[in-house]
Amino acid sequence: MSKMAADHNAINLSQGFPNFDIDQGLIELVANYMKKGYNQYAPMQGLPVLRQNISRKIKSLYDKDIDPDSEITISDGATEALFSTISAIIEKDDEVIVFEPAYDSYVPAITLNGGIPVYVSLKVPDFSIDWDEVKAKISDKTKLIIINTPNNPTGAILSKEDMQILSDIVDGTDILIISDEVYEHIVFDGYKHESILKYDTLKERGVAIFSFGKTFHATGWKMGYSVAPDWLTAEIRKVHQYVTFSVNTPVQWAIADYLEDATHYLGLGPFYQKKRDLFLKLTNDSRLDPIVSRGTYFQLFSYKGISLEADMEIAERITKDYGVASIPISVFYHNRTDHKYLRFCFAKKDETLERAADILCRI
């Protein structure tokens, strides 16, 4: 869709990346470390000072003590952390519960390692989890459950009650958890992010995965990290070492410094809520019906008030004929389930959102 947007000179609200600049101070930190000669391999598990600062951040946010040496691994973006973790856990014929619509890297990593995805569809229109269905689909082959909160592409979030139910389901079993929490700081309307790290049963058997690229508006830097118990971290690192060995050194040093000031990430929710609210206000007169985002920087709209054509068809038509690119939600389902939703990224300059909304209101 990004290529289609470029080919047709359309406003690109499809792929999830900001079109505004990152903090100049962070850029200067990276440049300074480059100039100082910090340009060779970092340790495989990540710079000690960065892992220490992540540990402090987790303590302040979730009141949990995380060992920076044995429980945190710096990764080449969250996607590499996901791949290395799935590869460390999944063997032939292991079953993995996957909630759909799902971020598109989960299933390829599962199947590449011989695993079998077992799909559970989130309930429309709030995209909540039917935990009875989850229980029904767990078998003696279930090795892993993957959750994503806040959720891409839906903008839904999991609650304390969800986390407690999940804890009860896996307690006393060998089932492991991957929690994709790359949008942990982008939560709206007074809600709190519920990390698995807050829940002992989940923390003891889970891997939480995070993204500095999402947090600091620098998706092209591909910098993330995983947090897991020491025994599980040791297995993840066996894969990580041979997938990428280590991660960009000057960027690690810069982010370690940048994390010293908590305002660099604590203000992210209000920042993006203003953009969400602006986009919703600007599109209020359109024939699109929003499913109000609770987190991430994505907003879903039903287009049933405009057309009943397939979501892939209308996404292409709106891009080519009107000049605004989005993502059809059916591509996040293995069987291309089509609920007539389009996803728009609002991590854009206000003027970009204004121009896009003006077009959408005329469809």
Automatic annotation (TrEMBL):
Annotated ranges, domain Aminotransferase class I/classII large: 10-359
Q: Which cofactor does it need?
A: pyridoxal 5'-phosphate
What is the official name of this protein in its record? Methionine aminotransferase
Q: Which Pfam families match?
A: Aminotran_1_2
Q: This protein's superkingdom?
A: Bacteria
Instruction: Give the species.
Output: Splendidivirga corallicola
Keyword list, A-Z:
Aminotransferase, Pyridoxal phosphate, Transferase
| Alphabetical list of InterPro entries matching this protein | Aminotransferase_I/II_large, Kynurenine-oxoglutarate_AT, PyrdxlP-dep_Trfase, PyrdxlP-dep_Trfase_major, PyrdxlP-dep_Trfase_small
Q: One GO molecular-function annotation for this sequence?
A: transaminase activity
The reply on keyword Transferase is yes
Task: Quote the PANTHER family the UniProt record gives.
Answer: FI04487P
